[in-house]
């Protein structure tokens, strides 16, 4: 099926506006429906002037009507704040069941079992049947289930960068003794567009600091994405830059496996269209992946500490959100995975 009719709920948010950019450039997608809270309606470029170049291809932004979304669209991306997004995605999926409408939710609402969601997000979960219907959308782990899914829970940005640092270990993960430590840093768009005091330029500039240590909601998501066999310690830190995530994972692999570990990463990355193992000696840069769906990865065995260091860089709005959502849509519709995602990074 080509020329799939696409809706985006939340196009005035950071993830939503990146979806608009990617969908508008996708050869098999046509934007037919844009909807938000009702606070910002009408032409999207009236709210986001940089999208003026797409004005002729954009429907006006309307207050959300779940049934209209399900009637007009073959595919709907939902990019609302957690707590709202999963419910809307589930309602659209229900309303569009007969028509086979596919829905991708970018929030955390459908990613975790109800008990874990309540514990880490601090709010009541969605009904168990909604969560059970959603397929966790990390293509590098769940590609075949995503192809069959009608409702996908798109992974979190930190969770994606951390999981991709470890998944190439494959069955060696079972031999990892002790927790995996992730030192993770993100640009400020990861926090969304709604104004908050700690995100003002005066607070953010010339500073880097840890936040939600030991409490970040992506902790159980990473453990789940790694199959539940390993404990993780995640330190999230805020960078005074707009976008991008850099992770360093410290992994206690059995030392006698160290000589073979680079080959494990190399064979994983050869199979994966968006995960690139950097040549030995090179380390990732956020700027080299910004604006794309790529993940750059580097591996280093540290003989002195006997720890494996794995670095990943992704764009939180790309492979961490909108790019990954389009990759999932490509899988759900049976298209080549890189369709619409051959994007040149924004180095400057
Ligand atoms: N930012 C990232 O890097 C990132 C990465 C991965 C996942 N995500 C997830 O993606 C989702 C969106 O994140 P974001 O950063 O794009 O957030 P954001 O910048 O705060 O945007 C939120 C969007 O939701 C709309 N909205 C808010 N309340 C609504 C309601 N009750 N009904 C309909 N629309 C409503 C807003 O539209 P109005 O203008 O109409 O108010 C806005 O378009 C979140 O669940 C987030 O966790 C974000």
UniProtKB/TrEMBL annotation:
Compartments where located: Cytoplasm
InterPro entries named among the record's database cross-references: AGPR, AGPR_AS, AGPR_dimerisation_dom, AGPR_type-1, NAD(P)-bd_dom_sf, Semialdehyde_DH_NAD-bd
Catalytic activity: N-acetyl-L-glutamate 5-semialdehyde + phosphate + NADP(+) = N-acetyl-L-glutamyl 5-phosphate + NADPH + H(+)
Cellular component aspect of the GO annotation: cytoplasm
Enzyme class: oxidoreductase
Keywords: Amino-acid biosynthesis, Arginine biosynthesis, Cytoplasm, NADP, Oxidoreductase
Family listed: Belongs to the NAGSA dehydrogenase family. Type 1 subfamily.
Protein name: N-acetyl-gamma-glutamyl-phosphate reductase
Source organism per UniProt: Alicyclobacillus acidocaldarius subsp. acidocaldarius (strain ATCC 27009 / DSM 446 / BCRC 14685 / JCM 5260 / KCTC 1825 / NBRC 15652 / NCIMB 11725 / NRRL B-14509 / 104-IA)
């Amino acid at each position: 099926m080509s020329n799939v009719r696409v809706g985006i709920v939340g196009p005035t948010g950071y993830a939503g506006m990146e979806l608009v950019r990617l969908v508008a450039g996708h050869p098999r997608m046509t934007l037919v429906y844009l909807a938000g809270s009702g606070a910002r309606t009408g032409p999207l470029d009236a709210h986001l002037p940089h999208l003026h170049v797409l004005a002729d291809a954009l429907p006006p932004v309307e207050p959300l009507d779940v049934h209209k979304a399900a009637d007009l669209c073959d595919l709907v991306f939902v990019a609302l704040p957690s707590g709202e997004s999963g419910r809307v995605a589930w309602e659209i999926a229900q309303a569009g069941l007969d028509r086979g409408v596919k829905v991708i939710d970018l929030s955390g609402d459908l990613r975790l079992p109800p008990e874990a969601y309540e514990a880490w997000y601090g709010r009541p979960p969605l009904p168990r049947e909604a969560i059970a219907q959603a397929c966790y959308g990390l293509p590098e782990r769940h590609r075949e289930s995503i192809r069959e899914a009608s409702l996908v829970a798109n992974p979190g940005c930190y969770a994606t960068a951390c999981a991709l640092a470890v998944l190439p270990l494959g069955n060696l993960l079972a031999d990892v003794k002790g927790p995996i430590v992730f030192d993770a840093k993100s640009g400020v768009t990861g926090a969304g567009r709604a104004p908050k005091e700690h995100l003002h330029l005066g607070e953010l500039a010339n500073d880097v600091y840890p936040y939600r240590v030991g409490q970040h909601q992506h902790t159980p998501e990473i453990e789940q994405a790694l199959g539940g066999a390993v404990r993780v310690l995640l330190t999230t830190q805020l960078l005074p830059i707009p976008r991008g995530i850099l992770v360093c994972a410290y992994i206690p692999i059995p030392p006698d496996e160290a000589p073979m570990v680079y080959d494990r990463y190399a064979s994983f990355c050869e199979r994966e269209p968006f995960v690139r193992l950097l040549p030995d000696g090179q380390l990732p840069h956020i700027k080299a992946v910004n604006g794309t769906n790529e993940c750059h990865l580097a591996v280093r065995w540290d003989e002195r500490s006997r720890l494996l260091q794995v670095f990943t860089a992704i764009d939180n709005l790309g492979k961490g959100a909108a790019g990954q959502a389009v990759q999932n849509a490509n899988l759900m519709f049976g298209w080549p995975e890189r369709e619409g995602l051959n994007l040149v990074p924004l180095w400057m």
